[in-house]
Design a protein that fits this description.
There is one protein chain. This protein is mostly beta strands. Helices cover 10% and strands 22% of the residues. It is built from four helices and 16 strands. It has helices spanning 73-86, 99-103, 208-212, 223-227, and strands at residues 14-15, 21-22, 44-47, 50-53, 59-61, 128-134, 141-146, 152-156, 166-167, 179-182, 185-188, 194-195, 252-257, 264-269, 274-279, 290-291. The strands form five sheets. A four-stranded antiparallel sheet has the order 3-4-5-9, with no helix packed on it. A four-stranded antiparallel sheet has the order 10-11-12-16, with no helix packed on it.
Length: 293
């Protein structure tokens, strides 16, 4: 993926199916992989009423409750129009963040709020925030991010959620032709990752431990790697044309534990592209394996 949009989380610990912290060695979990620090130090730079994320280049309002109260999606759009008319913090190009933009702020190592350690934001509500991204399948819904734990779900537009305006360049868009055959799988030209076609050990899906076993050089992806596959303008599944995954299952396991409740791991739901969780000990989800390109 071009630019600096993260494909890994900040979670460096590992947990078993009972939610107990364990040594990462040999687990197949995301925390086992050794990689350099993904974020600049410090990641955030405060300038008056705004904060620049030096990882993505986006600029956020320092206050995460600028609207003071939850708003419907239409009210949220109107609110952003009003602060633009007022020239908040000297700028008139604020907008509702896209789903990937707001998801980029999420920490997978912290909860309530699920934001990186040392962030400079104030008045963060540990609940749902609107994005400006509509749900492709249902016109009356739009995507939202739960900043208590990090889930990415769609909500009815008349529902009241919080609003966190952003400005700056949007994340890079995938190429028109995204997939290329490579090494027994398909290379995603957007991220460089190589994915193996759908692999589910049993008809009723795999448990998390089964999914973590991988296969030779193929491993279970982290949740941000899975989310990078989502094409939010599509549904059933929300994947770019030409994807190699056949008929996707209801959900697909990631190698990332949910620290909100460590007996659960993060799951991608391909029908619309939601990011939720699954109970580690229960089978029922599919397995898509990946290797670095």
């Amino acid at each position: 993926m071009t630019g600096t949009w993260p494909l890994t989380t900040d979670l460096r610990r590992c947990y078993d199916t009972r939610g107990r912290a364990v040594d990462c060695a040999g687990t197949g979990q995301e925390g086992e992989r050794v990689r350099p620090a993904a974020s600049p130090k410090p990641r955030f730079h405060r300038a008056g009423d705004t904060v620049r994320d030096r990882l993505t280049g986006l600029v956020w309002t320092r206050r995460a409750d600028l609207s003071e109260f939850p708003l419907s999606w239409a009210e949220a759009v109107d609110f952003v129009a009003r602060i633009n008319a007022d020239g908040f913090a000297g700028h008139r190009d604020w907008r509702l963040p896209g789903r990937r933009e707001l998801f980029s702020l999420v920490s997978h190592a912290r909860v309530n709020p699920a934001l990186p350690a040392g962030h400079p934001f104030t008045a963060v509500f540990s609940g749902y925030y609107w994005t400006g991204t509509p749900l492709a399948r249902l016109a009356r819904q739009a995507w939202s991010v739960h900043l208590g734990g990090g889930r990415l779900f769609a909500g009815m537009r008349h529902t009241s959620y919080m609003v966190w305006p952003v400005r700056g360049a949007a994340p890079p868009a995938p190429p028109a032709h995204r997939w290329q055959a490579a090494e027994g799988g398909a290379r995603d030209l957007f991220t460089g990752l190589i994915w193996r076609p759908l692999h589910t050990p049993a008809d009723d899906g795999a448990t998390w431990e089964e999914a973590l076993a991988g296969d030779g050089g193929w491993r279970l992806p982290g949740i941000r790697e899975l989310e990078s596959l989502v094409a939010p303008y599509r549904h059933g599944p929300a994947l770019a044309p030409g994807h190699p995954f056949g008929e996707p299952p209801e959900g697909v396991w990631s190698a990332t534990t949910s620290v909100y409740e460590p007996r659960y791991a993060w799951v991608l739901y391909p029908r619309d592209g939601a990011v939720g969780v699954g109970f580690k000990a229960r089978p029922g989800f599919g397995v898509w394996l990946v290797k670095d390109g």
